[in-house]
Write the C-alpha cells for this entry.
Amino acid sequence: MNTVNLCEVIWRKSSYSSGEGQCVEIVFLREVVATRDSKTPYGAALAFGADTWSAFMAGIKAGAFRAAL
C-alpha cells in the first residue's frame, strides 16, 4: 500500500466557501480523493476511491442528498 504525506499536497477549497473557516478542502491524487476540515489542517483526513467520489458527486448533482425541510 502506498502512502502520501498529505501535508505536502496542495489542498483546494470550494469557491462557495464563506471565508469564515467552515469549509471542506479536497485534494485529487491518482486514484484517491482526500478531504479534510479547513479548521484543522493537520487533523484527520478522509480518503475515498475515485469511483466512490464520482458516485458521490453524481448523487449530489442528482439531488439525492437534499434534506427534507
